[in-house]
Amino acid sequence: MSNPPLLAFIGGGNMARALIGGLIENGHAADAILVSEPDAGTAARLQRDFGVRLATDNKEAATAADVVVLAVKPQQLARVCAAIAPAVQRGRPLLISIAAGIRERSIEEWLGGDVMLVRCMPNTPALVGAGMTGLHAGPGVDAVGRALAERILGAVGEVLWVEEESLLDAVTAVSGSGPAYYFLFMEAMIDAGERLGLSREAATRLTLQTALGAARMARAGDEPPGVLRQRVTSPGGTTEQALRHFEQGGLRELVVEALRKARDRSIELSDQLAGSA
Ligand SMILES: NC(=O)c1ccc[n+]([C@@H]2O[C@H](COP(=O)([O-])OP(=O)(O)OC[C@H]3O[C@@H](n4cnc5c(N)ncnc54)[C@H](OP(=O)(O)O)[C@@H]3O)[C@@H](O)[C@H]2O)c1
Questions:
Q1: Which residues of 119-129 are buried (b: 16+ CB within 10 A; e: fewer)?
Q2: Residue in 46, 38, 60 with CA at minimum distance from that of residue 16
Q3: Of the candidates 137, 45, 53, 140, which has an alpha carbon nearest to the alpha carbon of residue 88?
Q4: Taking a C-beta distance cutoff of 8 angstroms, is the pair 95, 116 a contact?
Q5: Mean pLDDT across the stretch 214-222?
Q6: Could you tell me the domains of the chain?
Q7: Residue of 15, 17, 103, 124 to mutate, ligand 1, most atoms within 8 A of C-beta
Q8: How far apart are CA 194 and CA 203, in angstroms?
Q9: Residue 221 backbone phi and psi in degrees, to 5
Q10: Whose CB among 47, 60, 63, 106 lies 3.0–4.6 Å from 55's, allowing a Cys bridge?
Q11: Which residues are CB-contacts of 218 (< 8 A; sequence separation ≥ 6)?
Q12: Chain Cα centroid distance, residue 228
């Protein structure tokens, strides 16, 4: 393996751009990043903004690389894998797939079997460097491969390994879809603030800064969120009134059911993607 390892991105869209930006910020040499992206404008912007090298096609990128990051849309992955399979079998790079819902077995089959593959489930806050990625390592991946995958996905946030690939469906339900749950809650609080007489602008500022503050407290402290909640809830006070209303309305059960539905949909979509390839 070259030092630094040569990383090839197949697909240079939003997620690849975020990863490349994070890697460069963390000191990865730009000339050790190779991008294969069919849209000439997108490719040129990556080269201009980060100084990365451009490959003429996916085969060239996969042939040269120590690590191949599969960053195309899930529906494009079967075709991409078929084209790079001979290069992967020859060079045996570490493969990192960020394609949502495509199972390791499918990728391995498309690449001709027996590959070193890490499957990841990132989320959209990766685009602002605050991502959360669940990772699963296939059987061929050693400690060096795991460390490399952590370094790449860790460039845009936090990483968490799961021991069973099927747990990536639960990761999808919690952190993959999770940002939208918080956005929904923010929307609801902004609307409520407005109904209580605040301007939309004031309700928005109050809500967003409160969300950030609560997240930072929850991340910074040694206490779990439940303890933090109790600390800010004085008996007979205002917070208690609101929280009781949430509890009586079945918020916790609603959350469990919502996440179960997201997890089940993730499984269903993966089944469809496996069937349609
Ligand atoms: N964005 C997220 O927050 C997020 C979260 C979790 C997982 N993911 C996963 O990350 C992957 C990438 O998502 P994204 O949001 O970055 O999508 P994207 O912006 O559409 O990026 C995909 C890129 O791949 C290019 N491409 C298409 N066909 C190709 C081919 N045959 N060879 C090489 N490149 C090709 C596309 O070019 P054209 O535009 O010219 O087609 C596009 O620039 C997806 O599989 C998605 O499931 C994304």
A1: bbbbbbbbbee
A2: 46
A3: 140
A4: yes
A5: 91
A6: 7-165 (3.40.50.720), 178-265 (1.10.3730.10)
A7: 15
A8: 6
A9: -80, 170
A10: 60
A11: 225, 228
A12: 27
> Whole-angstrom Cα distance, residue 74 to residue 101?
7
- CA–CA separation, 182 and 218 (whole Å): 15
User: 12 CA distance to ligand 1 centroid (A)?
Assistant: 7
The per-residue pLDDT for 221 is 78
Dihedral (CA of 150, 152, 154, 160) sign: negative
Cis peptide before 4 (omega within 30 of 0): yes
AA letter at 3: N
**Atom 19 in ligand 1: which residue has the minimum CA distance?**
13
Does residue 274 contact residue 103 with C-beta atoms inside 8 Å? yes
> What is the separation of C-alpha 24 from the centre of its chain, rounded to a whole number of angstroms?
18
d(CA 204, CA 190) in angstroms, rounded, equals: 5
Q: The pTM is what?
A: 0.93
* Residue given tokens 């991946």 in the structure block: 141
Distance of alpha carbon 185 from the chain centroid: 21
What is the tens place of the pLDDT at every residue in 153-165? 999 999 999 999 9
Q: Which two tokens stand for residue 61?
A: 């990128």
Position of tokens 């390592």? 137
Residue 276 scores a pLDDT above 80: no
Ligand 1 first shell, C-beta below 6 A: 10-16, 36-39, 42, 58, 71-74, 76, 80, 98-100, 122-124
User: What pLDDT score was predicted for residue 259?
Assistant: 98
Cα(135)–Cα(133) distance, integer angstroms: 6
Q: Which two tokens stand for residue 134?
A: 């669940």
DSSP state of 158: E
- What is the predicted pLDDT for the residue at 277? 60
